[in-house]
Amino acid sequence: MNIYTYICFLSTISILIGFVTRKLNDKIQYTIAITATSIIVSVLFLIFGHLSWFKLDVVATHVMEQIDFKSFLLNGILGFLLFAGALGIKLPVLKNQKWEITTFALLSTLTSTFIIGFLLYTISSVIGLQIELVYCILFGALISPTDPIAVLAIIKNLKAPKRLSMQVEGESLFNDGVGLVIFTTIFAVAFGDHTPTAGGIAELFLQETIGGILFGFVIGFIAHLLISATDDGSLEILLTLTIPTAGFMLANLLHVSGALAMVVSGILIGNWTRHTGFSKQSRLYLDHFWEMIDHFLNSLLFLLIGLALLLVDFTTQGLILLLFAIPICLAGRYISVWIPFQIMQRFRHYNPYTLRILTWGGLRGGLSLAMALSIPKGILFIEHIGMDVRDLLLVMTYAVVTFSILVQGSTIEKMIKKAKESIMHKRGYVDLNPQKQNQRKH
């Protein structure tokens, strides 16, 4: 069977899991249900393989290796998911949160990278499983960017307060370019023959981020002109598909950030073309069409995240470091957000739950896994841990990603409800329960 066959079957499985989830409990996030189910299936496959039953683990691992998770996400469906997410971003709200989003996307991502790196280096040294500092910082670089796919798939469905939702969603959409530049630079230090210079880093940053933003404006503007030039509803919708297909691939060929290009063009189409370029009929179908694509690809992606467990090799030492990786990443996220937040709250009032939601809602997902899988295998074997450095970083990354999706993703709703309640209380909403009102009077 070829890759297309595998994708067809896996897509069907992911949709069926979502269907069953809705039937059993429509309050459960379908992305969480799909990830949990695929992890359970992966564990069963591994158990069967260990017992020499059916050899399902061999078959499933072969399928995952054929799909090539990294290429499938970073060079494939990422463009569709980011474009679909950016279409729903409201420009006035984005402008209102521009300083927060910029600060979190730039400063917090960089700060988190080094905090996580130094914490991991210190703790691994204390427990006698020391990892070289450069590899600790490399782990910090790949795990620090919050994943827009995971965030948009979970946070936006909970209907968080607009400003708070935009801070979380906006940061996750824009920190890809920064995170990728940091990861690429640390990667070059760890595995390259030449030490990158300050000029080379600056050039890479400008090319990836500024180039991606400008390219996003260009392809968004071209798409706007084409959409405005026709009144055919079907053709107008089809023209939007050219952006995450040819537009995303062209950005990658030009070595600019395709992720940022998709975000910028999506915001442009969603806020300008939506009101001036589309016919009335297409305006009604635009969101439905892209919500369908977003839902379908997210279902497939989160299934693959769970099945990626089959690609991970464990040792006892690796499991110990895996357990430390989760609190280290949470601490790094909290500190990196807390520092700029202390300054910004002097100039603007924030919901009392903002810092907690920014920390707990900083979800990691497929992007971190894809970066971990991009590390070449066999370059360095760590003797006292008994693992290749790539496998070790992948183990820790997988632990953080699954914890992020399953635990953080399923519990953040309580924080968002409290944030909503605090807003209602501030605006003077009264409790309509007569019994409680009588108790207050007495």
Automatic annotation (TrEMBL):
Bilayer-spanning residue ranges: 7-24, 30-51, 72-89, 101-121, 133-154, 174-192, 204-227, 247-272, 293-312, 318-341, 353-373, 393-412
InterPro entries referenced in this protein's UniProt entry, alphabetically: Cation/H_exchanger_CPA1, Cation/H_exchanger_TM
Residues of the Cation/H+ exchanger transmembrane domain: 14-417
Superkingdom of the organism of origin: Bacteria
Keywords from the named record: Antiport, Cell membrane, Ion transport, Membrane, Sodium, Sodium transport, Transmembrane, Transmembrane helix, Transport
Annotated localization: Cell membrane
Membrane topology: Multi-pass membrane protein
Family recorded in the similarity comment: Belongs to the monovalent cation:proton antiporter 1 (CPA1) transporter (TC 2.A.36) family.
Protein name, per record: Cation:proton antiporter
Organism: Pasteurella oralis
